[in-house]
Hints:
The structure is a homodimer of 219-residue chains.
Chain A: E1 3-7, H1 14-24, E2 30-35, E3 39-42, E4 49-52, E5 54-55, E6 64-67, H2 73-76, H3 80-92, E7 95-99, H4 102-108, E8 116-117, E9 133-134, E10 139-142, E11 145-148, H5 153-166, H6 168-177, H7 196-216
Parallel strand pairs in A: 1-2, 1-6, 2-5, 6-7, 7-11, 8-9
Antiparallel strand pairs in A: 3-4, 10-11
Helix pairs in contact in A: 1-5, 5-6
Amino acid sequence: MMDIVIPIYEDFTALDAIGPYEVLSRTGGRVRFVGREAGPVRTDNGMLSVVAEATLEEATAPDIVVVPGGVSTRTVAEDPVWLEWLRTVHATSTWTTSVCTGSLLLGAAGILDGLQATSHWLHLETLRRYGAEPTGRRVVEQGKVITAAGVSAGIDMALTLAARIAGDDAARAIQLGIEYDPQPPFDAGSVEKADPRLVEAIRAAVAEREARSRQRAGV
Amino acid sequence: MMDIVIPIYEDFTALDAIGPYEVLSRTGGRVRFVGREAGPVRTDNGMLSVVAEATLEEATAPDIVVVPGGVSTRTVAEDPVWLEWLRTVHATSTWTTSVCTGSLLLGAAGILDGLQATSHWLHLETLRRYGAEPTGRRVVEQGKVITAAGVSAGIDMALTLAARIAGDDAARAIQLGIEYDPQPPFDAGSVEKADPRLVEAIRAAVAEREARSRQRAGV
């Protein structure tokens, strides 16, 4: 049975983690949420807590790791415990993956050096800081490293990964099981498709949210 | 500020709840997860707990209620506390909504009588038991009642709802914020599109999972 680990931290983005969890939990593998400490971990908007069932130390050799993004990745990326843990799990993982700004954590751990990678569109250029080459693709596979674009892209990434580990038919069955036949009421889900005014509105909102997060963290 | 309540129960499906949460939390409203008791609530596969921040009794007059599905809806639908709570919140809600088999709970509470509605494709016909007319549409709006199809359809439903409460541009900004530009690697997300063999495989798997859930519940 595949050991699939999703590490979570204060101010992570829930859908980044729960999208892949919902898909990968249906592959026959075991999914575990882990944190620096076991117990409830608060999401980025402060409205929800998800429980870390175990500590990082209790999950150092998963087959698959899925690193979600969040508004606090700048803080997490400076935490030697997190970086060392990411390096440790990557050393023996079969797949090392991220969603949204989770890729910045992989980058900070040195895992993306020389690779193509993606992230939330707001943070693509930050990948260069870690020696990665940003791409606008939604799911980027480089050897055993797979990065996904922002938030909801984790569902597409996880279906791609499910096909690798359980076969195309199993992935199709999962897609049907979660009735993933997307029909968004608008077509504004990427920078290329959205109105430039909206792009700027988001940039402003996220900058403000990040400032609040840093304030809460006392940074 | 809109009071948005997501009631959760043992064996609910995480993405049913977290998809709408991720969208609606970005409308400017406050999202609260509530349960029969406050505290961690285990999801359908036993691999994850999400925290109910308050009890049902502490949230009887939300503006919006979003009822997720799960493998235990048959049990919940027989619980008078749940049914009474659903009737109470529906009496004063601005919007009463469901994802996946959450519609069976709305149905059991008498909320769908005479309405068109949807659910997970496996359970569409069960809606007739509650006087509802099943439709194959992904998001079904009937006055203030909106039902969504299986699991991932909650994201599309929530974007539709976000447009109603915050305007089309706000909904588009949210779609861009969560980078919801779906690109599933397969096209098997609905009964019409998937291979009939896969449809049958899912039917068998879900029947088995439901039997296990009833066994755990001692039913």
